[in-house]
Design brief:
Radius of gyration: 19 Å
Helix content: over 70%
Distance between the termini: 18 Å
Shape: globular
Structural class: mainly alpha
Length: 313
């Protein structure tokens, strides 16, 4: 297939990741609401990973039954992806937003593109030109201004929340890269199913499964949980992994920095919070970073979608 025939298909992965960023931001806002009503972040993680695994399993069973099959040799990679990657990022991120502002937790988590880019360059031999470096820099600086990290209150944040957010960046980096490697052999939904399944297994060993049934039964609460599982977890993670499949983890993580911008927009729409000129400037920087990385539609032959096409049956 020629390069020109492949390029148009790159528009869809960027769109999917941008949608994922918006949905993650909305899920974070909904999670904060539950924490304010007294729900533990650990219980919410148990809900998210357990029911996300069941939802994806249902989809695979009815539409892609053969995708449930994996090579036993890859089992340990899936266990690591689920227990340390997906499970780790879920619990540290949700714990962080239970302690500090959602936008601030997102900023610290989005140190991950730096980690992903450096590791991919050193160990995966990913091409790292000046435009990609500029995009990473602009994206992070933009996030810095969007969440008003320059304000005095930034330095009085809860230390546990800050540490959790930084750990979340590390887990984000880990699951993005390991997920990319596994998608060279498997579909994004196969990788996600086993990631959530092993994360769910871990959390239901640590926490009693009865927690899933014993929390409060208010209708409004259940609607919020259902939203977080579907639109805040399954769909955005699916979109993100589908993006990685075409773009690789570095580009995908740069585009995903649209999440704090989305959080700011949602706060403006839902909570009536006014965006400051510096926040608008930060949003402009992030959008500029995404335009730069999206405009350079180079085809990376190491992207999982092309590795799978070239793999003999």
């Amino acid at each position: 297939m020629s390069k020109n025939s492949r390029e148009p298909s790159q528009i869809k992965p960027y769109s999917l990741i941008m949608c994922a960023a918006f949905l993650w931001a909305s899920g974070g806002t909904a999670s904060k609401y539950l924490f304010n009503t007294g729900m533990s972040p650990y219980i919410l993680v148990q809900y998210r990973v357990s029911f996300s695994a069941l939802v994806i399993l249902g989809y695979l069973f009815f539409f892609e039954r053969n995708s449930v099959k994996i090579n036993c040799k890859d089992l340990w990679y899936f266990i690591a992806l689920g227990a340390f990657g997906m499970g780790g990022v879920q619990v540290t991120y949700l714990f962080a937003i239970s302690k500090i502002k959602v936008a601030m937790a997102i900023l610290l988590q989005y140190l991950a593109p730096f980690f992903v880019a450096i590791y991919s360059y050193l160990f995966f031999k990913e091409r790292m030109d000046r435009w990609k470096v500029l995009s990473i820099f602009l994206a992070f600086v933009g996030c810095f201004f969007v969440v008003e990290a320059y304000s005095v209150s930034f330095f009085s944040l809860d230390k546990q929340g800050v540490i959790a957010a930084l750990l979340s960046a590390g887990f984000f980096f880990f699951y993005s890269l390991l997920g990319e490697r596994l998608m060279r052999k498997y579909s994004p939904w196969t990788v996600l199913f086993y990631a959530f399944a092993f994360a769910a297994l871990l959390f239901n060993i640590i926490l009693p499964p009865k927690n899933l049934l014993l929390w409060r039964m208010e209708f409004r609460w259940w609607i919020t949980v259902a939203y977080i599982i579907s639109f805040g977890t399954v769909i955005p993670f699916g979109f993100f992994f589908m993006g990685i499949e075409h773009l690789r983890a570095t580009r995908a993580s740069i585009v995903a920095t649209l999440e704090p911008i989305s959080a700011g927009i949602l706060s403006f729409i839902i909570l009536g919070e006014v965006l400051t000129p510096w926040q608008i400037f930060g949003g402009f920087l992030v959008i500029t970073a995404i335009i730069i990385i999206q405009s350079r539609r180079e085809i990376d032959p190491e992207a999982p979608v092309f590795m799978k096409k070239d793999r003999p049956n």
